[in-house]
Amino acid sequence: MTTPFYTHHVFICANQKAPGKVCCANTGGEPFFEYMKSRLAALDMHGPGKVRITQSGCLGRCKLGPGLVIYPDNVWYRYASEADIDEIIQTHLIDGHVVERLLMERSPDAA
Length: 111
Hints:
The protein is built from two helices and four strands. The chain has 111 residues and is α+β, with helices and mostly antiparallel strands.
């Protein structure tokens, strides 16, 4: 088995849907992406051998967002503040534990 290029890959939705439709862009997806990327860089956690963060298109969980998913763990989070992002970084990416209170529910009609 080879060593992965990144320890984790975070996809954070910043998708913009048509006017009037619920989407992560309308709930702060892009500013939260920029915030998380800057926090990871400040903590020297961003880059090869560390964490990769990617601004994604629609993750299909629009009504529950804004949302992000962390691979290879396949953990889906919703968040509402920079404090939530900080908690995901500290608890999940640094300490290796799931942030239970921010887990995205597994509703099939959340798109």
